Amino acid sequence: MEQGLSLSQLLFIVLLGLFWINGWAPLWAVLLVSIWYLSLIWLEQNGTLDKWNASRALGIILMLRTNHGKVALEKVSNPRRFWRWYGEFSIWLCLGMMGLVVFLLFATAILTTMQPSQQEVLPATDLLLIPGVTSFVPLKWPLIALIIALIIHEYSHGIQARAHGMQVRSFGLLLAGPLPVGAFAEPEYEEMVRAPLRERMRLYAAGPSINLLATWMVLILLSATANGFVAENPGVHATGIIKETGAEDAGLLPYETITHIDGAEINDYDDFTSALESYSAGESALFSVLPRPSDNENSERDIEIVFTDKHEHYMRPCLEEISCDAEEYSLLLGDELGIFEGDAFVGMIVSEGTAAADRWSFLFNEESSTIEKTVQTIFAPFAMLGVPIANEGHTMILEERAMLSAGDGAIASTLGTDGMLAVFDFLFWLIWINFLLGFANLIPMVPFDGGHIVRDGTHSTLRFFMRKSNPIRIENLAERLSSMSSLFILLILLIPIVLPRIF
Question: How many domains does the chain fold into?
């Protein structure tokens, strides 16, 4: 390199080395980031980035700009009154979600502070949540979902800019190597500065809000897709075997499918519970079971299970608790759960063959009320966040995934089982990425959209209550308060990351 490396650039290389030495990042990751960083510096110094209409940001991020999409933007943003209304709605949606974001950040920080040594230390690559790099985020569908989420996020910013008369200089993509890590719409800076605070807040809120709205819109499609699956084989299976019960003694394994009990056909959970009503504790029955999908066997086997006492099993927690009234607890089991002495108990956690899909088909569950469906819809994205972590990057438990088959609907029949599973995976990751992108962007800290909303909102509030004060004084105060809140939030963010590594 003609100009060589500056002191700050050398320090960055040293910092990367410290990440490897301390075990926070593997050697291959450090080497790849270093090569990418040095390549960007070289391209910047020889003028190549200028020729590409690109620039370097935050050291290792490549900003690629384009004017493509501006014509379409002009057409989409034409109903300006509608988009201004949407921008106002976005502000209130984002403020509500921002309160939840702050609550979760504080709760996580407090829990980590109370027991830092018991918190799991995630690898540095898992903190980045990058497709193909993070252990529980695969490459294919999450990468496609990320590109779509980034496009609609930034395009929504651009629509708000044009709806309020601001010019958009360019659109662009943020790259860390070959992976997109962000996108941007670049309004004219002078117009942004001169724009009314409310209009700027609408612009900033539009990005996260469209990701959140896309989350729940795609959730409807996911629920419809999940409803299109049927069980490959009729019956029920155990997701868990309870110790010291007939199921364990007989050698029943998790995810083996029970098809018959003493010759009676078992198609679903209702058949299973009905069959058990004719038995009592101490009796036995012959269970016909199919092997687990992972066993790659087709032969059915018969096992004899001796039933234990269901009432005795459910009474055990009460008997182990000194303050528990056994007689009252027993009556409660009978009145509320219909569990009585002598009831037959297999000793398994029962699920149907469509359990992997049933979890997300709640919108088409005829037994659920409108209120139940609404609550499930609101909280479903939160439940989805932990699924890839629990399933090592998969959208379902693999054993239960193998039990699914495409239904007889027109779309399901056309796509087949593999096609339906591919659609499910894509929609799942589209929800996951959109929700995470919208949620993370509402962190009330600059440079996130949430930070800009807080800054302009603070400025607007101060201007309302300090009408007689100098506007410059109000602006400076708003900037100081915004900077202080950003630093405070940064500290809160770092606590769950740093403390477990120290202790």
Answer: 3
Among candidate residues 308, 333, 352, the one where a domain is terminated: 352
Number of Cβ within 10 Å of residue 466's Cβ equals: 14
How open is the CA angle 173-66-42, to the nearest 5 degrees?
Answer: 65
Residues 241 and 219 in one domain: no
Query: Tens of pLDDT along 16-55?
Result: 777 677 666 677 777 877 888 888 888 888 888 888 878 7
* Structural domain of 34: 7-52
Rounded to whole angstroms, the Cα distance separating 372 from 497 reads 36
Instruction: Please check whether residues 145 and 188 belong to one and the same domain.
Output: yes
Q: Of 206, 296, 211, 302, which Cα lies nearest the Cα of 250?
A: 302
* Domain assignment present for 331: yes
Q: Is 156 in the same domain as 89? A: yes
Same domain assignment for residues 40 and 93: no
Q: How far apart are CA 307 and CA 315, in angstroms?
A: 16
Q: Degrees (nearest 5) of the Cα angle 328, 269, 310?
A: 30
Give the span between the Cα atoms of 44 and 17, in whole angstroms.
23
Handedness of CA 164, 170, 176, 181 (dihedral sign): positive
Residues contacting 139, CB < 8 A, separation 6+: 131, 132
Residues 246 and 202 both lie in one domain: no
How far lies 501's CA from each of 18, 26, 116, 119, 176, in Å? 14, 16, 9, 9, 26
Please write the tens of the pLDDT for every residue from 154-187. Answer: 889 989 999 998 888 877 777 777 777 667 777 7
- Type of residue found at 114: M
- The answer to which of 66-70, 191-195, 457-461 has the lowest mean pLDDT is 66-70
pTM of the model: 0.84
Q: Report the alpha-carbon angle 211-133-210, nearest 5.
A: 5
Q: Which of 318, 337, 320 is nearest to 328 (CA)?
A: 318
